[in-house]
Amino acid sequence: MTTTIQLSQQTLSDLPVVGPDYDRSQVSAGVVHFGVGGFHRAHQALYIDKLMRQGDAMDFGIIGMGVMPSDVRRRDALKGQDCLYTLTEKTPDGQHSSRVIGSIIDYIYAPEDPAAAVSVLADAAIKIVSLTVTEGGYNFDHVRGEFNFDNRHVAADIADLKAGKTDELRTFYGLITAGLIARRAAGTVPFTVMSCDNIQGNGEMAHRMFLSFAGAIDAELAQWIDTHVPFPNSMVDRITPETTDADRAELPYDDAWPVVCEDFTQWVLEDKFAAGRPAFDKVGVELVDDVVPYELMKLRLLNASHQGLCYFGYLAGHRYVHDVMADQRFADFLLAYMEQEGTPSLRPLPGVDLDAYRHQLIARFGNAAIKDTVARLCAESSDRIPKWLLPAVRENLATGQAPVTLSAAIVASWARYAEGVDEHGQPIDINDRMAERLKENAAGNREDILAFLRDHEVFGDLVDNAEFTEAYAAALRSLHEVGSEATLDALLAAHN
Questions:
Q1: Is 334 helix (H, G, I), strand (E, B) or coil?
Q2: Residue 141 has what pLDDT?
Q3: Looking at the structure, do residues 19 and 163 belong to the same domain, yes or no?
């Protein structure tokens, strides 16, 4: 009977992969991170691990902090192996490179003891609180961009903090704000709140949302946060699929939660920190004064293109992204969208070859080694489309500098996908916080071609714009009548 080795600090020297070559017992906490998923572990945690291998950032060890029920499983997986995990990078030609990452040193599931979690955040040693809580985690209205005070957990946290209570906090807003309250009372330098989510102006968005939350507790607290707490913008990029059992089986030892990702990575960060930061520039992070042009490039080209391929691709029967990209019509469609509608909405980026960037994205999407799923890209669309695609649509409509035909077709493909059945009659499992409402809206597509667009919470007044709705309606009718591939062919023929 063969016994496999379990990944742990004790077994590191027995594993056939490179592990941390630094003394982890000498690493102290300097970062608390909310949203410890695959992306964080393939990105921010990797950059800090690289610094630690150079003898730097030993006081910037990461404490993961979870607030969602699913975070219990993540906590148990990581803590069961001393917070170590394997990161495997896969190139398009099938080359694999694995290493064990050691920069995460603890994981706290905050709901088990919120007051203890707040005490960690209040510790002066914590210099950065970072976030990858997904696009939907920021709790704001898509159309108005205002904080949603109707969320019952948020409302409960506000009431508790008004009363000076921290033992039942439920949200990262409540926990982080409680940590700042404690630091303000102690006269301690506040931590920096660093958003790493795919939202335009992610730091500015986090800033506004935290000010709204804090202002509901105490106006003077909000003013103190506004004056003293930095919220740097950032642009982060690395395609990181969800971990599968096949990923675990590829390793010659037991790792409960490995990560697989592409070999490309990028991080552009506004250099604005209150209590210091790791020497990120030593490991390839671009530290800049203005991240917004880079954010727009990534959101409106990469992220919006992901939406451009996923619904059309899923309807056509593809389940892996590389299979979608093996069909040249999809590559041509995405390039046409990026060149004609995405790029005109960008800000100047001196020194960046946008044509090379666009073609690099097509190559990255086609990386078969990482087995990225189409379903992953289709998930949580009600949070993604309004943040990634619709801002470019609105800008192009307002300026008239570019058409919106292909963007409208992408939205139409989402509307067709939300009907819940693909072109082969197979049911679609819609993974979205608004799934039932989206399906109900899409059920009216054939009787009222604009039914899906009439949801103002998602689309605002876009349904009233004739230029957009004409292109949208034409694409949706075509999807119903001839299917996704023929619809793409017609769109490309019209644009060539």
A1: helix
A2: 82
A3: yes
Q: Are residues 471 and 342 in the same domain?
A: yes
Single-letter code of the amino acid located at 419: E
Tell me, what amino acid is at 36?
Answer: V
272 and 302 share a domain?
no
Residues 6+ apart with CB under 8 A from 317: 422, 423, 424, 426
Distance, CA of 76 to CA of 256 (rounded, Å): 9
421 located within any domain: yes
Based on the domain organization, do 231 and 92 belong to the same domain? yes
Tell me the residue length of the chain.
Answer: 496
Contacts of 228 (CB under 8 A, 6+ apart): 190, 274
Against a cut of 0.85, is the pTM above it?
A: yes
Let me know: does 427 contact 420? Beta carbons within 8 Å: yes
Measure the CA–CA gap between 27 and 35, rounded to whole angstroms.
21
Contact predicate 480/446, CB 8 Å: yes
Q: How many domains does the chain have?
A: 2
H helices present in 318-373, as ranges: 321-325, 328-337, 354-365
pLDDT band at 140; cut points 50, 70, 90: confident
Relative to beta strand 29-34, strand 61-66 is parallel
| Residue type at 70 in one-letter notation | S
Render pLDDT for 254-302 as a digit per residue (tens, 0 to 9): 999 999 999 999 999 999 999 999 999 999 999 999 999 999 999 999 9
In contact, 458 and 386? CB cutoff 8 Å: yes
Range of the domain at 296: 292-495
Number of neighbouring beta carbons within 10 Å of residue 27 = 21
Neighbours of 328 (CB within 10 A): 9
DSSP 303: I
CATH number at residue 279: 3.40.50.720
Domain holding 327: CATH number?
A: 1.10.1040.10
Burial class (CB in 10 A: 0-12, 13-18, 19+), 46: buried
Q: What is the mean pLDDT of the chain?
A: 96
